[in-house]
Amino acid sequence: MRAIHTVVDGRPAGGSQDPLTAGDGTTPRSLEGGSTVHASSPTVVVIEGIDGAGKSSQCGRVAERLTDRGLRVVTCAPDRPLRRVYKSLIDDADGFPDARTSVLLGLADYAYATQDVPPADVVLLDRYAYSSCADALALGMRPDQVLPLLRLFDAPDLTLFVDVSPREALARKGGACSLAEAGGPEVLRGAGSLPDAFVTYQNAVRDGFLRLFASHTGRHGFHVVDGERSLDDVTDALCDVVLRACGAGLPEAVDA
Ligand SMILES: Nc1ncnc2c1ncn2[C@@H]1O[C@H](COP(=O)(O)OP(=O)(O)O)[C@@H](O)[C@H]1O
Ligand SMILES: [Mg+2]
Fold it and tell me: What segment(s) does the record annotate as region Disordered (predicted)?
Protein backbone atom coordinates (compact mmCIF):
# COMPACT_ATOMS: atom_id res chain seq x y z
CA MET A 1 0.00 0.00 0.00
CA ARG A 2 2.04 2.94 -1.22
CA ALA A 3 0.07 5.87 0.20
CA ILE A 4 1.09 4.90 3.72
CA HIS A 5 4.75 5.76 4.18
CA THR A 6 6.73 3.98 6.82
CA VAL A 7 9.00 6.33 8.74
CA VAL A 8 12.25 4.50 9.42
CA ASP A 9 14.18 7.11 11.38
CA GLY A 10 11.56 8.02 13.93
CA ARG A 11 8.37 10.04 13.91
CA PRO A 12 8.14 13.29 12.00
CA ALA A 13 7.55 16.37 14.11
CA GLY A 14 4.04 16.71 15.49
CA GLY A 15 4.07 15.34 19.04
CA SER A 16 0.57 14.80 20.35
CA GLN A 17 -0.85 15.80 16.97
CA ASP A 18 0.45 12.57 15.47
CA PRO A 19 -2.56 10.89 13.94
CA LEU A 20 -1.12 7.43 14.33
CA THR A 21 -0.34 5.85 17.64
CA ALA A 22 2.40 3.29 18.04
CA GLY A 23 1.71 0.15 20.02
CA ASP A 24 3.83 -0.56 23.03
CA GLY A 25 6.48 -2.63 21.21
CA THR A 26 9.29 -1.00 19.31
CA THR A 27 11.25 -4.10 18.33
CA PRO A 28 10.01 -7.40 16.99
CA ARG A 29 9.27 -9.96 19.71
CA SER A 30 8.78 -13.67 19.61
CA LEU A 31 5.42 -14.93 18.49
CA GLU A 32 3.77 -17.65 20.51
CA GLY A 33 5.20 -20.87 19.17
CA GLY A 34 8.68 -19.49 18.69
CA SER A 35 8.58 -17.68 15.35
CA THR A 36 9.62 -14.04 15.13
CA VAL A 37 8.17 -11.37 12.88
CA HIS A 38 10.60 -9.41 10.73
CA ALA A 39 8.24 -7.46 8.54
CA SER A 40 9.99 -5.25 6.00
CA SER A 41 6.85 -3.18 5.58
CA PRO A 42 3.66 -3.20 7.62
CA THR A 43 0.59 -5.13 6.68
CA VAL A 44 -2.10 -2.48 6.50
CA VAL A 45 -5.41 -3.75 7.85
CA VAL A 46 -8.61 -1.75 7.73
CA ILE A 47 -11.69 -2.52 9.80
CA GLU A 48 -14.87 -1.18 8.24
CA GLY A 49 -18.56 -1.53 8.99
CA ILE A 50 -21.69 0.54 9.44
CA ASP A 51 -22.14 2.74 12.51
CA GLY A 52 -22.50 0.57 15.60
CA ALA A 53 -21.11 -2.56 13.94
CA GLY A 54 -18.38 -2.90 16.56
CA LYS A 55 -15.38 -1.53 14.63
CA SER A 56 -13.87 0.46 17.48
CA SER A 57 -14.47 -2.32 20.02
CA GLN A 58 -12.81 -4.80 17.70
CA CYS A 59 -9.90 -2.55 16.76
CA GLY A 60 -8.88 -2.35 20.40
CA ARG A 61 -9.35 -6.05 20.97
CA VAL A 62 -7.55 -7.09 17.79
CA ALA A 63 -4.65 -4.70 18.49
CA GLU A 64 -4.28 -6.16 21.98
CA ARG A 65 -4.41 -9.73 20.71
CA LEU A 66 -1.83 -9.07 17.98
CA THR A 67 0.46 -7.26 20.41
CA ASP A 68 0.24 -10.24 22.76
CA ARG A 69 1.37 -12.38 19.85
CA GLY A 70 4.52 -10.29 19.50
CA LEU A 71 3.48 -8.11 16.60
CA ARG A 72 4.19 -4.39 16.61
CA VAL A 73 0.83 -2.77 16.03
CA VAL A 74 0.08 0.83 15.12
CA THR A 75 -3.47 2.11 15.39
CA CYS A 76 -5.08 5.31 14.23
CA ALA A 77 -5.80 7.90 16.93
CA PRO A 78 -9.55 8.66 17.06
CA ASP A 79 -8.99 12.35 17.85
CA ARG A 80 -7.58 13.93 14.70
CA PRO A 81 -7.54 17.58 13.62
CA LEU A 82 -9.53 17.20 10.39
CA ARG A 83 -11.95 14.78 12.04
CA ARG A 84 -12.66 17.45 14.65
CA VAL A 85 -13.59 19.91 11.89
CA TYR A 86 -15.90 17.36 10.26
CA LYS A 87 -17.54 16.55 13.60
CA SER A 88 -18.13 20.21 14.33
CA LEU A 89 -20.07 20.48 11.05
CA ILE A 90 -22.21 17.38 11.51
CA ASP A 91 -23.12 18.41 15.03
CA ASP A 92 -24.80 21.51 13.60
CA ALA A 93 -28.13 20.61 11.94
CA ASP A 94 -28.28 24.04 10.24
CA GLY A 95 -24.80 23.86 8.78
CA PHE A 96 -24.93 20.16 7.96
CA PRO A 97 -22.42 19.42 5.16
CA ASP A 98 -23.65 18.08 1.83
CA ALA A 99 -22.32 14.83 0.36
CA ARG A 100 -19.54 16.53 -1.58
CA THR A 101 -18.25 18.48 1.41
CA SER A 102 -18.48 15.38 3.60
CA VAL A 103 -16.57 13.12 1.27
CA LEU A 104 -13.81 15.65 0.66
CA LEU A 105 -13.34 16.41 4.36
CA GLY A 106 -13.53 12.74 5.28
CA LEU A 107 -10.98 11.76 2.68
CA ALA A 108 -8.65 14.60 3.66
CA ASP A 109 -8.74 13.25 7.21
CA TYR A 110 -7.87 9.70 6.14
CA ALA A 111 -5.12 10.98 3.85
CA TYR A 112 -3.59 13.03 6.65
CA ALA A 113 -3.98 10.26 9.21
CA THR A 114 -2.05 7.81 7.06
CA GLN A 115 0.60 9.97 5.46
CA ASP A 116 3.36 8.79 7.82
CA VAL A 117 3.48 5.64 9.86
CA PRO A 118 6.11 4.50 12.37
CA PRO A 119 7.75 1.12 11.81
CA ALA A 120 5.29 -1.65 12.56
CA ASP A 121 4.25 -5.13 11.61
CA VAL A 122 0.58 -4.23 11.38
CA VAL A 123 -1.11 -0.90 10.83
CA LEU A 124 -4.67 -1.29 12.05
CA LEU A 125 -7.14 1.36 10.96
CA ASP A 126 -10.60 1.90 12.45
CA ARG A 127 -12.31 3.12 9.25
CA TYR A 128 -10.58 4.34 6.12
CA ALA A 129 -11.40 6.08 2.83
CA TYR A 130 -14.08 3.46 2.16
CA SER A 131 -16.19 4.95 4.95
CA SER A 132 -16.33 8.40 3.38
CA CYS A 133 -16.97 6.96 -0.07
CA ALA A 134 -19.71 4.60 1.14
CA ASP A 135 -21.42 7.57 2.79
CA ALA A 136 -21.14 9.54 -0.45
CA LEU A 137 -22.75 6.71 -2.43
CA ALA A 138 -25.50 6.36 0.17
CA LEU A 139 -26.14 10.10 -0.07
CA GLY A 140 -26.66 9.86 -3.81
CA MET A 141 -23.29 10.58 -5.38
CA ARG A 142 -22.68 8.44 -8.44
CA PRO A 143 -20.03 5.70 -8.57
CA ASP A 144 -18.31 7.50 -11.46
CA GLN A 145 -17.89 10.49 -9.12
CA VAL A 146 -16.87 8.53 -6.04
CA LEU A 147 -14.57 5.82 -7.39
CA PRO A 148 -11.96 8.25 -8.76
CA LEU A 149 -11.79 9.80 -5.28
CA LEU A 150 -11.27 6.39 -3.68
CA ARG A 151 -8.48 5.69 -6.16
CA LEU A 152 -6.49 8.55 -4.65
CA PHE A 153 -5.86 5.98 -1.90
CA ASP A 154 -3.94 2.79 -2.35
CA ALA A 155 -5.95 -0.16 -1.21
CA PRO A 156 -5.07 -1.54 2.22
CA ASP A 157 -3.43 -4.96 2.23
CA LEU A 158 -6.44 -6.43 4.00
CA THR A 159 -9.96 -5.09 4.49
CA LEU A 160 -12.20 -6.56 7.17
CA PHE A 161 -15.89 -5.72 7.03
CA VAL A 162 -17.68 -6.30 10.33
CA ASP A 163 -21.14 -7.10 9.05
CA VAL A 164 -24.08 -6.26 11.29
CA SER A 165 -27.63 -5.43 10.24
CA PRO A 166 -28.67 -1.81 10.82
CA ARG A 167 -31.37 -2.95 13.26
CA GLU A 168 -28.83 -4.86 15.36
CA ALA A 169 -26.42 -1.91 15.22
CA LEU A 170 -29.17 0.43 16.38
CA ALA A 171 -30.09 -1.91 19.21
CA ARG A 172 -26.45 -1.99 20.32
CA LYS A 173 -26.49 1.78 20.39
CA GLY A 174 -29.47 1.69 22.71
CA GLY A 175 -31.84 2.78 19.93
CA ALA A 176 -30.23 6.22 19.74
CA CYS A 177 -28.24 7.70 16.87
CA SER A 178 -26.97 11.03 15.65
CA LEU A 179 -28.31 12.97 12.67
CA ALA A 180 -25.19 12.09 10.68
CA GLU A 181 -25.60 8.38 11.42
CA ALA A 182 -29.14 8.71 10.06
CA GLY A 183 -27.93 10.30 6.82
CA GLY A 184 -28.62 13.94 7.65
CA PRO A 185 -31.68 16.18 7.40
CA GLU A 186 -32.93 14.98 3.98
CA VAL A 187 -32.92 11.28 4.83
CA LEU A 188 -34.57 12.12 8.15
CA ARG A 189 -37.33 14.07 6.39
CA GLY A 190 -38.01 11.12 4.10
CA ALA A 191 -37.97 8.48 6.83
CA GLY A 192 -39.89 10.43 9.46
CA SER A 193 -37.89 9.39 12.53
CA LEU A 194 -34.23 9.08 13.43
CA PRO A 195 -34.34 5.28 13.99
CA ASP A 196 -36.08 4.69 10.65
CA ALA A 197 -33.68 7.03 8.89
CA PHE A 198 -30.75 5.19 10.51
CA VAL A 199 -31.95 1.82 9.18
CA THR A 200 -32.64 3.17 5.68
CA TYR A 201 -29.38 5.05 5.48
CA GLN A 202 -27.15 2.36 6.99
CA ASN A 203 -28.57 -0.21 4.58
CA ALA A 204 -27.49 2.06 1.73
CA VAL A 205 -24.08 2.54 3.34
CA ARG A 206 -23.64 -1.21 3.63
CA ASP A 207 -24.43 -1.61 -0.09
CA GLY A 208 -21.94 1.17 -0.80
CA PHE A 209 -19.16 -0.56 1.12
CA LEU A 210 -19.64 -3.83 -0.72
CA ARG A 211 -19.63 -2.06 -4.05
CA LEU A 212 -16.41 -0.23 -3.20
CA PHE A 213 -14.64 -3.35 -1.91
CA ALA A 214 -15.52 -5.14 -5.12
CA SER A 215 -13.55 -2.60 -7.12
CA HIS A 216 -10.71 -1.54 -4.82
CA THR A 217 -8.88 -3.98 -2.55
CA GLY A 218 -5.29 -4.91 -1.88
CA ARG A 219 -3.32 -8.13 -1.99
CA HIS A 220 -5.27 -9.92 0.75
CA GLY A 221 -8.65 -8.77 -0.51
CA PHE A 222 -11.65 -8.08 1.68
CA HIS A 223 -13.36 -10.35 4.15
CA VAL A 224 -16.91 -10.04 5.36
CA VAL A 225 -16.95 -11.17 8.98
CA ASP A 226 -20.27 -11.90 10.69
CA GLY A 227 -20.40 -9.25 13.41
CA GLU A 228 -23.62 -10.49 14.99
CA ARG A 229 -21.77 -12.81 17.33
CA SER A 230 -20.20 -12.35 20.74
CA LEU A 231 -17.33 -9.87 21.05
CA ASP A 232 -14.93 -12.79 21.57
CA ASP A 233 -16.15 -14.73 18.55
CA VAL A 234 -15.83 -11.71 16.29
CA THR A 235 -12.33 -10.98 17.63
CA ASP A 236 -11.33 -14.60 17.00
CA ALA A 237 -12.59 -14.42 13.41
CA LEU A 238 -10.83 -11.13 12.69
CA CYS A 239 -7.53 -12.20 14.26
CA ASP A 240 -7.60 -15.44 12.35
CA VAL A 241 -7.68 -13.58 9.03
CA VAL A 242 -5.09 -10.99 10.09
CA LEU A 243 -2.63 -13.56 11.41
CA ARG A 244 -2.87 -15.56 8.23
CA ALA A 245 -2.27 -12.41 6.20
CA CYS A 246 0.71 -11.40 8.34
CA GLY A 247 2.49 -14.64 8.72
CA ALA A 248 1.20 -17.66 7.02
CA GLY A 249 0.63 -16.73 3.42
CA LEU A 250 -2.48 -15.52 1.72
CA PRO A 251 -5.85 -16.25 3.25
CA GLU A 252 -8.66 -16.93 0.85
CA ALA A 253 -10.49 -13.69 0.05
CA VAL A 254 -13.89 -15.06 0.90
CA ASP A 255 -16.45 -14.52 3.63
CA ALA A 256 -15.12 -15.55 7.03
N1 LIG B 1 -20.23 -8.36 19.25
C2 LIG B 1 -20.91 -7.48 20.01
N3 LIG B 1 -21.96 -7.90 20.74
C4 LIG B 1 -22.66 -7.02 21.51
N5 LIG B 1 -22.40 -5.69 21.58
C6 LIG B 1 -21.37 -5.23 20.86
C7 LIG B 1 -20.58 -6.08 20.04
N8 LIG B 1 -19.63 -5.32 19.44
C9 LIG B 1 -19.82 -4.06 19.86
N10 LIG B 1 -20.85 -3.99 20.73
C11 LIG B 1 -21.39 -2.80 21.37
O12 LIG B 1 -22.02 -2.04 20.35
C13 LIG B 1 -21.80 -0.65 20.55
C14 LIG B 1 -21.13 -0.05 19.31
O15 LIG B 1 -19.82 -0.60 19.23
P16 LIG B 1 -18.62 0.23 18.58
O17 LIG B 1 -17.41 -0.60 18.70
O18 LIG B 1 -18.58 1.61 19.15
O19 LIG B 1 -19.11 0.31 17.07
P20 LIG B 1 -18.56 1.20 15.84
O21 LIG B 1 -17.17 1.64 16.20
O22 LIG B 1 -18.58 0.27 14.68
O23 LIG B 1 -19.52 2.32 15.67
C24 LIG B 1 -20.97 -0.52 21.82
O25 LIG B 1 -21.84 -0.29 22.91
C26 LIG B 1 -20.32 -1.88 21.95
O27 LIG B 1 -20.04 -2.23 23.30
MG1 LIG C 1 -16.31 3.62 16.25
Answer: 1-37
For residue 85, the CA-to-ligand 2 centroid distance in Å is 17
Q: Which residues surround ligand 2, an ion (CB under 5 A)?
A: 55-56
Shortest-distance atom of ligand 1 to CA 174? 25
* Ligand 1 touching residue 181 (CB < 6 A): no
Strands 5-6 and 116-117: what pairing? parallel
Q: What is the pLDDT of residue 254?
A: 46
Domain 40-247: which topology?
Rossmann fold (3.40.50)
pTM recorded for the entire structure:
0.86
Kind plus residue range of the DSSP H or E element containing 31: none
The alpha carbon of 160 and the centre of ligand 2 are apart by a number of angstroms equal to: 14
Q: What CA dihedral angle connects 183, 184, 189 and 194, to 10 degrees?
A: 70
Average pLDDT, the chain: 85
Whether 143 has a pLDDT exceeding 50, the answer reads yes
What is the 136 CA–ligand 1 centroid distance (Å)? 23
Contact 116/20 with Cβ under 8 angstroms? yes
Domain ranges of the chain: 40-247
CA distance 167 to 84: 28
CA angle centred on 154, ends 153 and 159, rounded to 5°: 105
Rounded CA-CA distance 37/217 in Å is 24
Q: Which of 109, 114, 107, 108 is nearest to 132 (CA)?
A: 107
For residues 107 and 19, what is the distance between their CA atoms, to the nearest angstrom? 14
Nearest CA to ligand 1 atom 11: 172
Contact between 89 and 107 under an 8 Å Cβ cutoff? The reply is no
